[in-house]
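Input (TetR/AcrR family transcriptional regulator):
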Amino acid sequence: MTDSQAPASPRYKRRPQQMRGHERVEMILDACARLMVGKGVLSLTMHGIAKEAGTSIGSLYHFFRDKEEVLSALGRRHIDALGKIASELLLIEPATWIGFSTADTVKHLVLPLLEYVEKNPDFLHMISPNFSAGQLQASDLQVQLKEIYSHVVMLRIPNVSTEMCEVYAVAMLALPAGLCRAAFENDNFKSLLILNEAPRALVAYLEAIEKQGA
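Output:
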């Protein structure tokens, strides 16, 4: 049986109904992430994922039709986790955002997201330009983050126009995203790019637009 062929049982994804099933799915996704980082996405096979997860190939096919479904589920897990972090930003009071220093604003606004990316190196593989299988579909997350960034910019620069507020929010999304992609290509100083240089670039940018809008 090849990786493109499922067992004789019906080939459809089953949602885990019990805690044991949820735990097994998480083990499978963790295994997929490890293999992607260690060997690259092109080396992923259903048999390889099952072996890395310590489960049978039949058990793997019980939950996933093929490796593309595994990758899609892994992508959804990342999006859900980042979405939770983004939602927590909405709990910060407007007065708190206004009272923060520029550095503290970046620390609270962006650093939790960057720390997640740094701790989950497979995410960098999934946002790299060459990644296509199970491509991350994060449009809702991007919209949510842009709205949050726009909200914070308007609080800190009250006179900013709607158009420029959107420009600033898009730039604040793009700066760390670009450095995260660079981190994928420079693994020897990946953490420095994500956790040091990305916040440094955002602090400098936010200071510049705040000064301009003062």
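Confidence is low (pLDDT under 50) at residues 1-12.
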